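Hello forum,

I keep getting stuck at the same step: I have a sequence, I want structure tokens, and every attempt I make locally crashes halfway through. Rather than fight my setup again tonight, could one of you with a working pipeline run this one for me? It's a single chain of 624 residues.
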Amino acid sequence: MKNYISIAALAFATLSIPSLAMAQDAPSKGAAPTVSDADAFVVRAEKDLFDFSVEAGRVAWINSTYLTDDTDSVAARYGEIGTEKAVGYALEAARYQAIPGLSYDTKRKLDILRGGIVLPAPTTPGAAAELATISTKLQSAYGKGRGTLRGKEINGSDIEAEMGTNRNPEELKEMWVSWHDNVGAPMGTDYSRMVEIANKGAAELGYADVGAMWRSGYDMPADDFAKLTDKLWLEVKPLYDELHTYVRTQLNKKYGDAVQSKTGPIRADLLGNMWAQEWGNIYDLVAPAGAGDIGYDIGELLVAKGYKQTELTDFSPNRGKAEKDMVKIGEGFFSSLGFAPLPKTFWDRAQFIKPADREVVCHASAWDIDNVDDLRIKMCIKVNSTDFVTIHHELGHNYYQRAYNKQPYFYLNGANDGFHEAIGDAIALSITPNYLVQIGLLDPAKVPGADKDNGLLLRQAMDKVAFLPFGLLIDKWRWGVFNGSITPANYNKGWTDLRLQYQGIVPPVERPADRFDAGAKYHIPGNTPYTRYFLARILQFQFYKAACDISGWKGPLHRCSFYGNKEVGTRLNAMLEMGASKPWPEALQAFTGTREMSGKPMLEYFAPLMKWLKAQNKGVKKGW
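Reply #2:
Ran it on my machine without issues. Output:
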């Protein structure tokens, strides 16, 4: 499932009604379809999909929060129905696509129907069932995955937490290798078959392959979109290169040449994250002398205020209270901007902690079950800084979902999928020291001064900037897999090569060709397009700068917090409530004043850090 679950995004596995049911209302064979036929088709499809999506959403929620063979089976069945529906509607939409005189809304909704499928099944009998079964099997395998630490089994959520704090390179290696071997490797054959089926489905819809179909959903030709992502990456790459060089030097100082060399790529398991996608957990290893200690850690502040993490064996009346209270802090930020509180059902139905009695998918996600106000998040919250920020991110999805809930069904989505990811992250950028003071977490006397700015910015860059190449390469790899330039025999080599090319990292051990390391990342078996996260890293700084400008902020951009500014909330809501009803450049302009995505606001935010990094890296060989 998506990191945010807007069932309206044509994704449970993406939805539609069986082609036989549609055929009775379609124009007779040989008759040229008319504008009125297209209009009637869209109305019929929109009604059916809305109704089905609510039931499908409930099935998906149960499967994700009660992982059993039975819920897998039911989810697979609904996935089969949903995929058949999606393909049936997409094929039907293609019949009306070229009719002259279509209204703006009908044409846009037909485009959404035709290109909105994540994994299209071909009309071959049994193909939809096989595709749904494989998709469910892959996601379930990830949810049930285990690695080891000191020879003992450990689940994925606990490995993530442990890799953030463990500084023993042998134990880090053990966790990394065991997770990738146990979780990723068994998926390769199924994944290859899934690609084969889905590509046939994409071909029936008129696309070269699934990757081309994914890239078509950005209000521009697919190839132009790929060029746009390359342009954005090249804008911000110099900042990443400086960060990579600095971090590599500090890791060499910590571990020595035998573990991390002074030049070349960085060992992937040393970066504080299973996938080396964000490096903030090793900030303590790279913090600059004098400015590195910013004087607080949000996780420690929460613990000091009595936020005690729930143990699995804790069945007291306060079970989950600390984690729920963390979510209430996130809700408070949105309330301060003028947004209405979350509904009571949110607090009754969301999953905040890992249950003690069953397997669940712990990967954080936000849900809108009824396309109106049945909002939920699903997390296994830990009392730490990372999850504090993730909560703000997931709630960003929920508030976006509710803002556009009066749009027609096909527009119940973000202007593009990067918008959805960026909203909560823009809010999280406003988690500044002054904000922490405002909500009572940080003592005013402990607000770091300007001399700590390099430390503050480095801490942010370790997540925000470090993520950029990872956010891009996930789909670069899949685009290659779908178009055949990366063959099944080279899945793992292609993955490792892209990680080296873009991130400048290598596995801690040589990886055999028969492994499937890509499968060790949730979004690969979960079949979630990933470029949205790269776009979100860019867009969040554009949104953040726009909010700071609206609020009248005059200081350094990275110190701005727009907490409590109702005008920001009003302007933000004006963009959010558009949903997918207009091309994304119009939505972007409504809030930021520009129609162009750009890395410049990010560079402005980190400008002081860039200057400092260049000074630190003077004389050091850059690159890998």
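The first helix runs from residue 19 to 23. If your local run keeps crashing, start a new thread with the error log.
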